[in-house]
Amino acid sequence: MAAKNSKNRNDLRSISTETVAIIGISALLYMGLYMLLMTGENANPYIAGAIVIGLYLITAGLTCLIVERRKHSKALDDTLAPVMGRIMFDAVVKMQTPVFICDSEERIIWYNNATESLYSSQNKLYGQQISELFGISLMAIKMDKTENGAKVSCEGRTFYARYNHIKTDDNDFAMITTTETTELDATREKMAGDEPVVMYLMIDNLSEMMQYDSENYRPAASKIDTVIRTWAEEKNCLLKEYERDKYVMITEARVLNEFMALKFDILDRVRATHSNEASLPLTISIGVGNVSGDYAEKDRAAHTALEMALQRGGDQAVVKGNESLEFFGGITNTVQKRTNVRARMMSKELMNAIRSASNVIIMGHRFADYDAFGAIVGMTRFAMYCGARVNAVINPSDRNLLGCRNMLASEEDFIGVFVDEQIGLDLLTTDTLVILVDVNNIEHAESSLIAERAPALAVVDHHRKTAEFLNENLIEYIEPSASSACELMAEMLEQVLPREELSAIEATLMLAGIALDTKNFSKSTGTRTFSAALYLRDRGASPAAVQALNKTTLDDYMREGRFRTNVEFYRKNMAITTADSHTETGPADRITAAKAADNLLSVAGVEASFALVKIGDAVNISARSAGRINVQLILEKMKGGGHFESAGAQVEGEVEGVIELLKAAIDEYLAETTEIQKQTQP
User: Fold this and answer.
1) Are 492 and 349 in contact (CB under 8 A)?
2) Of 346, 332, 319, 232, nearest to 281 (Cα)?
3) Where on the phi/psi map is residue 653: left (φ > 0), alpha (ψ -120 to 50), or beta?
4) What's the pLDDT tens digit per position in 204-246?
5) What angle do CA 73, 79, 81 make, to 5 degrees?
6) Single pTM value for the model
7) Residues pairing with 178 in the sheet
């Protein structure tokens, strides 16, 4: 009590000193004001004195009033402080959610009753780190600036945690207040599980079976229909066949999660269904619209997902989420099922788009090969026939294209057509149509900037689609069943181009693209591949010129030898090779690596080959398959892509580390497919 009275006396003494100081200073100021008023010729001392005295009295009165109010306020604060402190303390103690107070080292020094009930399984919390309880540091809670605070969980309950700073004369403390969300989260999870999901299913090859194996068509269709309906009934899903061999299914998100956990085992069930005399593999493709919104939005998402599943070769399920795409299946090779009707339809659509554009820019993929360059040449001729102003973006310093460009030097129509990326960017207008050939991923295009900024984009490609485009494309002609992009271009040109419009040199370059991707017609070929080659040969394509293009220089031949001294067999039937580490590598070794991967397939027992070479900061991987192993799925796990028998990837890091990543991707692929392959044995 004596200490409190002493403090009050000191406060009053401080206030009195302030009052005397203010009144004294005011007196001096008003004396100066009086002297200023008396400086005039007609100054009246009485009037001046009255003004100064009046102002001084007003100032002194206001000062005394303010001081008096401060004294009362101070006394009131001193009276209420203990009461308010006790009220706030009781409120915090009795709060229904945990409250912690931590010191500067994040140790708990106090907690309320709700905390005791939460941590009933622990004897004492005093002295423990906040991160031991919530799995999140105090700094993380402090830095979370969201409206509700940081999301934390403990003892099967969930909370939002907010940071509050407490400062005293001696120390700084942190008070963590929480709001429990356990029941709310459970409700949200239940509602999310009830969210409807739209799925489209399509039997891939029954139409081909009806054409080539009509006797077994009906039994096969009946068997697959039974398998699909049984699968839907197991989960109480609504299934309707809206068109021959096509189904729509409505289910719930929790059921979809079960399907995804089982990796859409319906793919395996259908694949294991064998008609006695069926000569074609029986598979299905599934598109799932797992997005928020109304049924129309879910329906569009499901259609998009199904289209991507087909563009990736079928026999797989694609789940389209709000911001994600997930792929399941895809272990079988693609069956050729294109028709002249589709080629003619896509040709007409592309002609209309070209004629509506102010100019056309054509691109292939980075580090273009003969297939990409041949497709560029074919698409350029297609655009010229439509009367468009056309340019093709390439890398002028790419030595791999030197022979192709030399062949075109005598073609007057191609003078000034090829430009670099910078000129291509300058050619972009609001009505420009950009066409990608032999690539369907913008990141892998010759100029990703041009593709991203294109007001209208068309794609013609034979690689399996790996991702969605940011904007909807004007035209997408993606056919993984085609051997090459040049094969697709040959079919389109055959539909619309008069005989004399395609020169022999242009046909030769396109034939070189087909020969490259089919390893001289020994892999990935079908009747349509030979039909396209026949069309090009009829237009003057020279096999001898194609062979001359494929000849290897002595320097390239020596480079290939570097990959023959470091071959490692993995999982008995996969070969991994790297360039000799004692020699310097450069851009030319990228092509050499691809050739090395091709050559490894000729070794007995090799089912898949991988050639790695470090160029700059990235390790380039070229992968090839003999037809049983899907190298695209393996390299997709390393953010690469391609198609079933040929794929590639670029990975930052050192060669040794990338080899370990590659082995892990191979192991994951084999783990996913081994059981499936067992189930599909007849």
Assistant:
1) no
2) 332
3) left
4) 876 666 665 666 777 778 888 899 999 999 988 999 998 888 9
5) 95
6) 0.59
7) 161
